[in-house]
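Sharing a chain and its predicted structure for anyone who wants a worked example. Both blocks are below, sequence first, tokens second.
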Amino acid sequence: MFRIVEAVRRTLRERKGSVFVEYLLLLTIVGIGVIVGLTTLRDALNSELNDLAQAVLSINS
């Protein structure tokens, strides 16, 4: 009986570890996606602000 209980405990520990690894992988993928998205947003915003600056400069000229 003790062997069965120990085997169940070991299996649960291993499953907890595998679930942790899955969550870690998911968070890593989401984190990379957020970084890429923010970089794209930064570039688009920078482009729009440069266009606005050029428009304001052309009014003054």
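Comments welcome. The helical segments are 2-60.
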